[in-house]
């Protein structure tokens, strides 16, 4: 198959890759797994960290949520900073910063310093989730954009699963300090590996004004389209993973099966986009989720395939970034918007579902999910019309 012309451009014309650099793609994806572990190393060892600091798990859970707050506030800003400084510099900086914060945490500093380190680590995480997919698109052939973004869409789920797998062994060897030390070593190692491999790019002179930036960002339908679909998904996904297993089954494997099935849906998007536009796949995901959850009646055997359909959405959202945006700057801005709205959805969705379930149980969960799916469909349809009017 002959590749399509290079579409992602910058002020300093980047190399048009006629072959995808799969080795570098996989190394960057591994860096994404370590970015996911920035959340997982605390949330999956919350009980152990709480014992070390003699605090309740509720108190220490703030060390998880504080990283999401960084994404909500600065997601769009980081998108521009990555475009200004270049994704290579951003990734190396973020890996180094993350390694330093994990190393500090391995010393078990006083609790206030620990929380400050998590706040700073939130900056590292945010830069990574904006810069890595920007780089992955840059080093991919155009025909592989959707497959590469489908792979990237799996990073958080796979990263969490991998962290859950290795964490008990690490804890058994050296306790909580070893968890942080191994994470620091992993990030530092990848920074050294990537240093000579990542393509260099000139800095771009892009003005940085927080208010003007958000006004221009959210006024550009091409840049914001992927993020708005992703937002309604994140409002649902973590909450459904949190509450559904206990509501529909007493079998422990269900909690593991649901995210794995969703990951299969996410990865399949890379192949589906050869025949269907990414935004159409996103609409299909919302429609299928609403229908299957609505008719499930709590049946496990309907909810399992529903999670494959739910998993289509993140893959479609990431694939929409290079589909709609054709410059490095806009790709970085779109990734920043994804991080911003994704963190907003993840932070607010679970408490909203908790309130609804407390009063209305499983029927309330299905109604709320349907409402969010309808809102997602309306957003995507409206934004698509604006893009068409602009001239696709």
Structure, explained:
- This protein has 392 residues and is mainly α.
- It folds into 2 domains: 1-13 and 21-207, MFS general substrate transporter like domains (Growth Hormone, Chain: A, Up-down Bundle), CATH 1.20.1250.20; 209-392, Growth Hormone, Chain: A (Up-down Bundle), CATH 1.20.1250.
- Helix content is 81%, strand content 0%.
- It contains 14 helices and no strands.
- It has helices spanning 22-43, 46-53, 57-60, 62-85, 87-106, 111-138, 145-152, 155-194, 210-218, 221-248, 253-272, 278-296, 300-324, 328-390.
- The longest helix is centred in the C-terminal third of the chain and has 63 residues, at 328-390.
- Residues 1-7 and 9-15 have low confidence and may be disordered.
The gist of it:
The chain is mainly α.
């Amino acid at each position: 198959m002959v590749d399509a012309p290079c579409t992602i451009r910058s002020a300093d014309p980047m190399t048009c890759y006629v072959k995808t650099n799969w080795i570098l793609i996989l190394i960057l994806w591994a860096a994404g797994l370590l970015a996911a572990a920035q959340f997982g190393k605390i949330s999956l060892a919350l009980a152990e960290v709480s014992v070390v600091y003699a605090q309740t798990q509720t108190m220490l859970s703030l060390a998880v949520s504080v990283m999401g707050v960084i994404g909500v506030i600065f997601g769009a800003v980081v998108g521009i900073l990555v475009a200004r400084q270049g994704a290579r510099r951003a990734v190396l900086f973020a890996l180094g910063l993350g390694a330093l914060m994990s190393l500090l945490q391995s010393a078990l500093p006083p609790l206030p310093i620990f929380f400050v380190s998590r706040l700073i680590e939130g900056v590292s995480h945010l830069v990574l989730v904006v810069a890595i997919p920007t780089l992955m698109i840059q080093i991919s052939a155009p025909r592989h954009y959707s497959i590469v973004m489908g792979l990237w869409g799996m990073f958080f789920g796979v990263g969490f699963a991998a962290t859950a797998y290795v964490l008990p062994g690490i804890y058994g060897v050296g306790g909580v300090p070893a968890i942080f030390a191994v994470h620091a070593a992993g990030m530092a190692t990848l920074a050294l590996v990537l240093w000579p491999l990542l393509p260099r790019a000139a800095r771009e002179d892009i003005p940085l004004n927080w208010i003007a930036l958000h006004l221009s960002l959210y006024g550009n339908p091409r840049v914001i389209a992927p993020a708005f679909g992703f937002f309604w998904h994140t409002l649902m996904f973590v909450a459904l993973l949190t509450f559904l297993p206990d509501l529909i089954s007493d079998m422990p494997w269900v909690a593991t099966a649901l995210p794995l099935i969703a990951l299969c849906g996410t990865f399949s998007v890379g192949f589906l986009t050869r025949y269907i536009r990414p935004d159409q796949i996103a609409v299909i995901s919302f429609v299928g989720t609403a229908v299957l959850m609505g008719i499930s009646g709590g049946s496990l055997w309907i909810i399992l395939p529903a999670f494959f359909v739910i998993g289509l959405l993140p893959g479609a959202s990431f694939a929409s970034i290079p589909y709609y945006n054709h410059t490095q700057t806009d790709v970085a801005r779109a990734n920043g918007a994804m991080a911003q709205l994704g963190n907003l959805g993840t932070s607010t969705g679970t408490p909203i579902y908790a309130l609804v379930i407390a009063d209305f149980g499983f029927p309330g969960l299905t109604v709320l999910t349907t409402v969010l799916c309808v809102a997602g469909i309306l957003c995507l349809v409206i934004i698509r019309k604006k893009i068409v009017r602009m001239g696709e």
